[in-house]
Amino acid sequence: MPTAQGYSRLHIALHWLVVALIVPQFLFNETIAEAFDATLEGRVADPGVLGPLHVLCGMAIAIAVVWRIALRVKNGVPEAPAAESAVQKMIATGTHLGLYLVLLLTAATGSVAWFGGVETAGDVHEAMTTVLLILVGLHVAGALYQQFVLKTNIMDRMRTPRV
Ligand code: HEM
Ligand code: HEM
Fold it and tell me: What is the pLDDT of residues 25-73, one digit of tens each?
């Protein structure tokens, strides 16, 4: 993968779009969960407005993630700040790749559950959202550690486009 000067405007926009779409997925998922339970039990499901919205946001997240992976492959990503130790670099890269993988698996298992009526896929979907929360926590803690302890000004990478 090539090394870039920094993230592009589009890459930065997609990063914050995914953040903005993930928050409601965690705050407003009761309607789809209830509708899913109802379907499994053979009752009439009422997904209301929030049910389809959960599906749409989930799909949009998946599209944005695939787009970002394509941008990473095409343009590359900036090197880790020099202040990071080899272990910290490994953790950061692992977290980034883990976030992509888990986001795609979350969207995929949600789709299999919802469109296929597969209970196990729903269980895996729930488990994936827990893993996602842990990875996001690690990622945000890392970003704040870089910004305020190592003082690498890392936040500027996700604010100011360089390419
Ligand atoms: C990456 C995007 C997504 C995120 C972050 C996400 C997040 C969540 C969360 C936090 C829950 C509640 C889990 C719990 O109660 O512990 C949930 C439930 C659910 N989501 Fe998603 N979701 C995403 C994409 C999707 C998609 C694309 C679909 C369908 C096409 C979907 C269908 C469902 C269903 C059916 C449930 C209920 C599962 C059950 O009760 O077993 N989700 N989602
Ligand atoms: C749902 C939440 C989030 C997800 C899924 C996420 C995902 C990612 C991923 C995958 C990268 C790697 C670069 C890329 O390919 O885009 C990245 C970079 C970055 N993120 Fe996030 N992020 C989230 C939230 C945040 C938040 C809340 C902050 C700020 C506190 C943040 C700050 C950064 C910074 C500064 C980088 C650049 C790191 C570097 O170049 O080494 N992210 N993010």
Answer: 999 999 999 999 999 999 988 889 999 999 999 999 999 999 999 999 9
Where are the domains positioned within the chain?
Answer: 9-158
129 Cα nearest atom in ligand 1: 10
From the CA of 102, which ligand is nearest?
1
93-131 per-position pLDDT tens digit: 999 999 999 999 999 999 999 999 999 999 999 999 999
Is the pTM of the predicted complex or chain greater than 0.85? yes
Q: Measured from the CB, is residue 59 less than 6 Å from ligand 2?
A: no
SS3 77: strand
Query: Per the structure block, which two tokens stand in for 107?
Result: 């969207």
- The encoded tokens of residue 70 equal 């394509």
- Over the range 44-76, which residues count as b (16 or more CB within 10 Å of their CB) and which as e? ebebeebbebbbebbeebbebbeebeebbeebe
Q: Position 7: which residue type?
A: Y
Among protein residues, the one whose CA lies closest to atom 25 of ligand 2:
140
